[in-house]
Specification:
This protein is α/β, with parallel strands linked by helices. It has one domain: Alpha-Beta Complex (Spore Coat Polysaccharide Biosynthesis Protein SpsA, Chain A), CATH 3.90.550.10. 41% of the residues lie in helices and 18% in strands. Strands 3-2-1-4-6-5-7 form a 7-stranded mixed β-sheet, sandwiched between helices. Strand 2, helix 2 (46-53) and strand 3 form a beta-alpha-beta unit. Helix 3 packs across helix 6.
């Protein structure tokens, strides 16, 4: 099962069409999938748009009565996927945005890499469309702000919000950190997710992807200066909550691939 996890806040203009495009992808790439959308305290018609889709798609909608933020939404979605799966060694969760930033056509490549033995695959986004020069610069140099604190071998785009994670690796990481799994927010939360989960991943990969910032139906919510300060402050939060070591030695990659097929 592939759980497609989509945090959403006031995305009524795009969320329905995005779900339909994901459906089209899986129609041409037949895999068992479940859509998980978290409506994070939306004040627009997001809830009304989602309701009819629950009757025609494999869709579960989770709602926060009030907005709790990106990290809380991501953590809830991923925990929901773990609760639903009965095959965590085979199943995986895809994380993507609701505003057309991320191209659903990349999903088959992400899934194939999991099926070939990867546990964590992160897209390296090439930004196109609206992003300002400061936003592009921040995206490029964000890993430098975390240098010496966060290192995920195989991942250069640490703040990418588009990825796939094998659920057994995610479950083990969450168990080790309890309720404090994600202690940051915004772009820093993506880096934290890959940092903590990567410790339990036997193989980590990256794939190229184009991020479109000119298709959303609202202004960008990213404030580059604020986001840079948030990432910088996250350094101290990461130091205070270091990643926990695996409970047992990591097996060889070939053994891991065989296990994933059982």
């Amino acid at each position: 099962m592939i759980y497609v996890c989509i945090p959403s806040h006031n995305e009524a203009a795009t969320i329905g069409l995005l779900l339909w495009k994901i459906r089209q992808v899986f129609a041409g790439f037949p895999r068992e999938y479940q859509l998980l959308v978290l409506d994070d305290g939306s004040t627009d018609a997001t809830g009304d748009v989602l309701e009819p889709y629950t009757r025609v798609l494999p869709l579960t909608v989770v709602r926060h009565p009030e907005r709790l933020g990106y990290a809380a939404a991501v953590q809830k979605l991923l925990r929901t996927a773990i609760e639903l799966t009965d095959r965590p060694k085979r199943d995986a969760a895809i994380l993507m945005h609701a505003d057309f930033t991320h191209n659903p056509q990349v999903i088959p490549d992400l899934v194939r890499r999991i099926e070939s033995g990867a546990d964590l695959v992160v897209t390296e986004g090439t930004l196109e469309g609206e992003p300002s020069r400061p936003q592009r610069m921040l995206r490029r140099f964000a890993p430098q702000l975390l240098r010496g604190i966060v290192n995920v071998p195989g991942v250069r785009d640490l703040v990418s919000g588009y990825s796939i994670i094998r659920l057994v690796a995610l479950r083990n990481a969450m168990r080790s950190h309890g309720s404090g799994f994600l202690v940051t927010d915004g772009w820093a939360a993506n880096a934290e997710l890959y940092w903590r989960t990567g410790r339990y991943a036997r193989r980590v990969e990256s794939v190229a992807s184009v991020e479109r910032h000119d298709l959303r139906q609202r202004p960008s919510r990213v404030r580059p200066t604020d986001e840079a300060m948030n990432i910088w402050r996250a350094r101290s939060q990461f130091r205070a909550t270091p990643i926990a070591p695996p409970a047992e030695p990591i097996a060889r990659d070939t053994e891991r691939q065989a296990e994933a097929l059982t």
